[in-house]
Design brief:
- The complex is a heterotrimer of chains A (782), B (157) and C (290).
- With 782 residues, chain A is α+β, with helices and mostly antiparallel strands.
- Chain A has three domains: 19-26 and 479-623, Aldehyde oxidase/xanthine dehydrogenase, molybdopterin binding domain (Aldehyde Oxidoreductase, domain 4, 2-Layer Sandwich), CATH 3.30.365; 33-140 and 205-252 and 259-292, Alpha-Beta Complex (Aldehyde Oxidoreductase, domain 3); 374-467 and 629-779, Aldehyde Oxidoreductase, domain 4.
- Chain A has a seven-stranded mixed beta sheet, with helices on both faces. A five-stranded mixed beta sheet of chain A has the order 7-15-14-13-8, with helices on both faces. In chain A, strands 16-24-25-26 form a four-stranded mixed beta sheet, sandwiched between helices.
- In chain A, strand 21 (584-587) and strand 22 (590-596) form a beta hairpin.
- The N and C termini of chain A lie far apart (66 Å).
- Chain B is globular and about 50 Å long.
- A five-stranded mixed beta sheet of chain B has the order 2-1-5-3-4, covered by helices on one side.
- With 157 residues, chain B is an alpha+beta fold.
- Chain C has twelve helices and 14 strands.
- Chains A and B meet through helix 1 and helix 19 of A and helix 2, helix 3, helix 4 and helix 5 of B.
Chain lengths: 782, 157, 290
Amino acid sequence: MAGIAAERYTGASIKRSEDPRILTGSGRYVDDIKLPGMLHAAFVRSPLAHARVLSVDVSAARDLPGVVAAFTGAELEAMTVPGPDVLMALLGGGGPTPEFTLLATDKVRFAGDPVAVVIAESRYLAEDGCELVDVEYDDLPPVANASFALDPSSPPLFANLGDNIVGPRSRSEFGDVAATFAHADRVIDFRIGVHRHQNVPMEGRGCVASYDAGLGVMTVYAATQSVHVSRIAVAMRLGIEQDKVHVLAGDVGGSFGLKIGASREELAVAAASRAIGRPVKWVEDRGENLTASGQAREESFDVLAAVSSAGDLLGLDVKVVIDTGSYPGMGTMVPAIMEAMLPGPYKLAALGFESTAVTTNKASYVAYRGPWASETFVRERVLDLIAKDLGLDPLEIRLRNVAPRTDPPAAMITGRPLVGVTTRESLERLAQLVDFPAFRRRQAEARARGRYLGIGLATFIEAAPGPRSPEGPSGPMGMESMRLRLEEDGVVVLFTGQMPHGQSHQTTLAQIAADEFGVPFEQVRVVVGDTDVVPFGLTGGSRSATMTGGVALHGARQLRAKVLDFASHLMEASAQDLQITDGHVWVRGDPASAIAVGEVARRAASGQFGADVDANLEVEAAFDGGEGGWSGGSHCAIVEVDVETGMVTVQRYVVAEDCGALINPAVVDGQIRGGVAQGIGAVLLERSAYDEDGNCQSATLMDYLVPTACDIPRIEIEHLQTVPLDADVNFRGVGEGGMIVAPPTVVNAIEDALSPFGVRIYEQHLPPARILELIAAADSGQ
Amino acid sequence: MKVDITLRINGATCTGSPEARKTLADFLRDDLNLTGTHVGCEHGVCGACTVIVDGRTVRSCLMLAVQAAGCEVTTIEGLAPDGELGTLQQAMWDSHSFQCGFCTPGFVMQATAFLRAHPDADEQQIREALSGNICRCTGYQSIIDGVLLAAERARQS
Amino acid sequence: MKLPPFDYEAPETVSEAVELLAEHQDEASVLAGGQSLIPLLALRLAHPALLIDINRTAGLSGVSATDGWVAIGAMTREYVAEESGTVAGAVPLLAAALPLIGHEAIRSRGTIGGSLAHADPAAELPAVARALDAEFVVRSQSGERVIAAADWFEGYLTTSRRPDELLVEVRFPAAGRGTGISFQEVARRHGDFAVVGLAASLTLSGGAISDARLAFAGISDVPVRAAEAEDLLVGERPSAELFDEAARRATEDIDPPADLHGSSDYRKKVAATLVRRGLRAAADNAGERQ
């Protein structure tokens, strides 16, 4: 560790370098892009959930002044290469892939399915053109929900699949399920459901595509979580070699899993741009975002729990049905992750798991912040329900069941070792931060006055990126790469495939690199968002803290070593006697020897050194995650339920979280709070709703309700001292945790508030009307 | 049909010929290249498009450009014209108020107008004043903290 | 979500405005605050051939009190009415409802007349107008008409304004001595439309209720007066039992709509709760107005 600057930036809430442009309206989002000759696209979308398309007549649209082109699904199909969803292709699908086209050709499969695209001088004119497109439909019976889809007589959405079951998974067993259940004191069964809800980033999907026929290059300005994955999608679908596809992204207005790869609409726009020979922009409006971009989480679980009378959760047997909507992708991959994660941090001895993914006439199931999160909901709900049955305290039952931290570490029954997991500590810390006995007294007094307060807690772990596995690199996307270079102006430039959309990477990665290399924070620049310039990467899966933080740390060290090696030629000292601090290279003990790193770089670029001196001050680093590790924590909510109106107020929300070493505490806290807010929103406000004819009923923000500043309380966060596993990289991911564990935390609190009524809750969405229904049903003994 | 309009934007006189149906938000972004004002929903719920017209905050997606003729409009670009951040912007920077930044201009405009009228507002009043602006990233606490800090600093100076 | 094309006129006088309405009738939409109309247009749920923008039409704004009435020009912005001392003093029920309308930026542009001409049954102002028996002054080329609130609201987003008429003014009776008011609302979030709302007004004289007004928002396609409950209350002294009975009477025959935000049964239960809470609050502050 000799010669490394004392840590100044890592661990501090350094102000973000993104903010000066964000706060002054100088950010550049995809809708801010204007290219000469640029046109605008709008889509004609099916009003029906399930129908054959008999004819599509775009002639009247084409005749409208200002409309430059209009394409049907068939015309686009002729210009593109058929293929599956890029995420399924990259990550390996969970079953046979349905075949589908960019725009609907013979069939529409959800209300909002795009049928034609109109390209015009303005978005206004393009929408005018859409109103003139004449589509003839032949209505089909809608496969309105999972029960319809499971019925073998339901009309299949995809002819090549034969039925509406797209992801059957044969049963897996871990441990001795039969024996565990046979010897349990009690076997309790539950049916638990999670409702459909969705990402709703403030910026929707969109792109500007521009094809240069002379060079044969397709340039796409995207709103994306990975420029490289977008590039693969565009190249595949348009039949262009990847190196002739150039994807760029500037600022991205949130995503939460939505903007990965390229959507059917974006691919259609790229194809249209190539056909027309002019740049085309498409930015989805909020109606499209709510009805067509994708939705998540609609899963129902049949759960059997084997328990001892003392409250040990011995085994779980779970059957899940997941409604993947109309164009399956991510939804078929989620059950495998749920299976792996179901035991959580507990001493579960046996797990049986089977899943079925079905296709229905709704928007497609997409990744949404912690896509597998329902496993935590189910597990944490089951523990509370068991506790109530057995008369145990919710904290007590969890402490009883948490796997002890042993060496070697205990492993989840599904395989992964629980190395460094601090669940017990986080539960105990919660108990210190929230005085449970005092709350119980307050609760009793309130009940006497006709007011219903409740307290709930839940705990989770997340593989962010997960512990080192014997098979290879940590994390689902393998190795993380980074290119680092010292520029002649003294700036250390990091080229990363990460694509921040709120994660503040341009600040956090610079903090690490500044510390490790030895320059001031202002002398590091993080470059993102250009496939010509950055290595492969994707922001997702809560992996960047470890993977990218780690590659920045090691890469900066490698670059420093290289610079010192070169500087040793300049300074006639051996590299071991040199150090870099505060942007200068100097001989240890001789401050007068200091040379600015920029000067070193200029000398390296001067070409005056022979071939035996490596003057290329650039490294390509790769990191496999080191020892990796788990993130996790315990959350507690105190709520009040107005039993006359069903309105719920979250009075207090406390987090005791372990996400490893913190790069920037303010950034970490922001990620946690944002995730918790989405979890509170899911329980109290948000639902992607469809009626029995497949009409989307949550098509505006007046019906899809997102929480506001009056709905989210101050969220108190305490960070636990983590168990360091790696010599250098102990940052762990934090992006998804809040959203994973907040829903069961809040639902547990609501059930506690309503316990005088005997309410038991087996669902996640509890708007006011539902609260009153639950009270009435419990009252009448149902 | 197009209508000729003259209005003042961030202190400068501007003219244009927007179609009558063009919203003020689109006029600012497309015709005047002031892309700091963002469009988040186009039905007046999310607040991302908030600007100040004749001293009052307005959702620019719910106003036609032609209706702004003769008005004084301030957009996010008008708050720090020489690049030096105002008290509120600086306080928000210091408070890590934002993440992806898409909602930011709307919040800054709404909070700017609110603090001018209510410099001593408490947290609950600030929450209510900002409850018409949606943020999906932050859970709002850091934004509220930025506004409280700005108010505190304004009182001290 | 871009607006469809339309012709545009911005008449400077009421006679120009009504002349345009006479000519174009149903083919024209009147643009007041735009906070309801522009979203409708953006969603392309309406395609008027002509937009008549009355934001520059003279003589349509202002709050004045005469003779036991408060007259509010149709184009008076909601925030102006909210800040008006006259409204606060003389029409406290209106003053109580105004801050619940959306958010500040909506009230910067939204107008008293616009909201009442739009007539969304879940909005606050229609319930207030119905509770207070407000009067609607409309003008056309044939002259002026005054329409009572009971006759103004005809159906969902439908009023008795004829296509050639322009709403120019709304008049609210000034609250008398001994009047207490309450506007109660259950909304999903702060600033949202009411799932159920209640405009309540009680006048006490000698300790007994001499006047009672209860008008619901959100339980029908128009704001609804709870006439049987009002009849029950008049002549009685306030009490919890009386208010419970009033709540029962006010809601036993209603059949509220069901939607994403509440079932019919939910709205019915909440309506009853709001009556109890509203009457209690109104009775409590009736003593303050002497």
